[in-house]
Amino acid sequence: MKRIGTLRLLSDLSHFSGAARLRELLAGDPAVRVRCSPDGRHLLLLRPPGAPSPQLLVAVRGPGAELERAWPAGHPPPLDAFFLPWPARPALVLVWESGLTEVWGAGVGPGWQLLRSTELCPGGGARVVAVAAPRGRLVWCEERQDGAEGWLGPPPAFSHYVCVRTLEPSGEAGTNLGPTHILLHHCPSFGLLASRKDLFLVPTTTTWPGVSHILLIWSPGKGKVMVAAPCLGLSHSKSLNPGRGDTWDFRTLLRGLPGLLCPMKPLTVHTWAPTPQGLLLLDFRGTVSLVQSHGGTRAVGTLQEAPVGLAGSAALGTFHGTLACVLGSTLELLDMGSGQLLERKVLSTDRVHLLAPPAPGMEDKEELETRGGLRLLSALGLFRVGWEAPQGLEVPSAEDLVFEEACEYYQRRSLRGAQLTPEELRHNSTFRAPQALASILQGHVSPSTLLTTLRAELRDYRGLDQLKAHLVAGDEEEAGWTELAEHEVARLLRTELVGDQLAQLNTVFQALPTAAWGAILRALQLQPDGNGRLRSHAPPDVWKKVLGSTSAGKEPPNGILPLFELLCQCLCRLEPRWLPPFVELAQQQGGPGWGAGGPGLPLYRRALAVLGEEGTRSEALELELLLGSGRPKAVLQAVGQLVQKEQWERALEAGLALGPSSPLLRSEIFKLLLAEFARHRRLDAYLPLLCRLCPPDLAPAELLLLLRTHLPDELEPPTPFPEPGTEPPLSVGLLRALLEQTGAKGRPSGPVLSLYEDILWDPGTPPPTPPRGPVTTLQASDHPGWEAWAPSGQGLCVTDTG
């Protein structure tokens, strides 16, 4: 059904202080400059030089004091004036061509008071030609006289400088003005137009023709400047962050951007208008174009009438995807997507001003009621232009909307083929949630009870709405997006993480992983314990949601990861060293079907799957996950990898780290390392650790049999000493330490259980010395030769008969 554009009277200006003077200035001076305060309650009117007094008028709707200023002949009025978006009190800044700047505030004392006065050009020899006040800053373009930079100064065409100073409130009646920083030097004359996020530097009639087809877009929140030529369709981005000391020589800037200096006609623009979507420009053919913050330009539409010369007044604005253009006494509404003319109205006056919409989050009650349209100001009053539904169109009640939305929701989740209807939901006691919400909307619940129930949620939604308003305004975008991501993750963790909720959580982690992980830290209450491990104080319900997985054998749709895999992937990107401790902590949690102790994949294998296919994973992370899993097969696999890499000490420590509850696993690790000990001598330096790992119930005979199994085959007869360059074989000295370890519990009483056991026990005292007998001399006939050896060293005498 076709919408109807309406023009509704909001106020006849009688609610404003000094209403008579306000109407007089609006009706009498077509060149008066009109600005609206961020909260929509104050109107500022500034008349051009030479106009009769007062040259400045500030009117306020409702209670409050007005401000009138007049300057005598020889003292020019301000070049421009702006309201400052300070939430604590109304404030405005006045800037003169000489550089004099005054900051005025209301609400501190009676009426308006001068808060601060300063000079933008303290050295003299310069004049301000344009000024703008984007949020928290004061930016101006000044022209410096010839010789201000010395006799080698730039030519007059490039004798302008664009400077910036921060401008912020301080206390109840203070103002902070930061130091001056030069953004551009040696540049032509530029006009300055500010939107909520960007500052546009546009050419003027005095700009040097060679560069009058170029405009610049500075985005303070991003620290970048975009140099664009709309007629060429070209744009280039450069860094421009005053916080880092960035500054540009305009001529050097253009020399480094190819294609921008092609000979082109100057931009013939009748009216510029900054909007949240970008910069609108109206040329003398009646075509309206939009220059976006990234430098791209597109045509929006063409008006039925074109402006006649520079003398004709024009105003541009946007609302709800609609372009509003006031040209003389004609109002045209165009669709910004298609450029189609939607409606055209003839006004009763040609002196109409479009007011900028209030800043998000600063509207009062009356402004909230008129949100969604544009406000037009004339001597006849304050009007709102917007779209309204035609009469006779029946709008469903809030109660009907509740049951219709609930019907669609339950139908999507229902497995039965019958169609649900709103009437069935009204009378069926099975579906209680829509009935409870409908009763609240009908007023069956008292406001105090409802407020008590929803107080925490309302506080969260209010904070979230204010945060979104700051993001729209371009304030501290990085911190704002971080906080928004944390809010979203916390909200999703309170829902059932399936389907769209899980997909949305994946999207948040991909876009802002650091902020999303910060929300998880708070939800799980994770803290390091100082020993390289993590501890958590989160309730079991939270861990149940974290460890839950998809059905066994089913891959998540469209690559969407379950929450546990999502957290492991995020840790791999941010802090890989904390992934193994996190998996170990997760393994300590769990319940039936949680993923930690259920029939599905163990958590360490789910974490390994996130690292990628085998062979492409980080070997260090894979080892830590296998060792920390507590699973015998995984630990043996890790020890086997350590053995292959000859990391003997770490392999031994992995076995020693196992508690007494894992004797079989310790024994398997000992046998694996004992085999290596038998094959080569690279484990000799770690023999004390190997002895500690030796199972206490291992008998010496079993130890020797294990060693014999893994001893290398001898291809040649043994020699007393190894050949040079070859590895020595296993010696009895090294073996003795292991044999002693097998009997560390003490020698058993009773018969000897092993053939080798008697050599391990030392009685403590040597055996008694046998008695000495007389020395006898062997006769020649009794001499057996050199090959004869006495069995004992007692009374040995050898005589050679030969």
TrEMBL record:
Pfam families: HPS6, HPS6_C. Residues 400-772 form the BLOC-2 complex member HPS6 C-terminal domain. One of its GO terms (biological process) is blood coagulation. GO terms for cellular component: BLOC-2 complex; early endosome membrane; endoplasmic reticulum; lysosomal membrane. It comes from the Eukaryota. Residues 764-773 have a biased composition (Pro residues). Residues 763-794 are annotated as: Disordered. Keywords: Cytoplasm, Endoplasmic reticulum, Endosome, Membrane, Microsome. The keyword Cytoplasm applies. It is found in: Microsome membrane. Residues 1-385 form the BLOC-2 complex member HPS6 N-terminal domain. May regulate the synthesis and function of lysosomes and of highly specialized organelles, such as melanosomes and platelet dense granules. Component of the biogenesis of lysosome-related organelles complex-2 (or BLOC2) composed of HPS3, HPS5 and HPS6. Interacts with HPS5 and HPS3. Interacts with biogenesis of lysosome-related organelles complex-1 (BLOC1). Interacts with AP-3 complex. This is Hermansky-Pudlak syndrome 6 protein homolog. It comes from Callorhinus ursinus.
